[in-house]
Design goal:
By secondary structure, the chain is α/β, with parallel strands linked by helices. Helix content is 38%, strand content 24%. Helix 1 (11-19) packs parallel to helix 2.
Length: 84
Amino acid sequence: MVSGDFNFDLYRNFQEIYRNITPGKTSTVSVNLSQATYMDSSAIGMLLLLGEHFGDIKISLEQCPDIILSVLKIAKFEREFNIS
């Protein structure tokens, strides 16, 4: 779950969380964005790195507030992620 501003300040913590999960050891990955209030380009990059880490596993970005949803749509993330 991401709370508050989803920006570079979260990079290290975000990376530590998903790097501790071995690709192939899980069949689903989801990121709850219900408490996110802002997303910048570094957050877009972090999500792309998350996708690279898990390879073929489809990642869900869940409970996106409208402001976050609009950023994800502009970035055309629906092509690579399940967004709700």
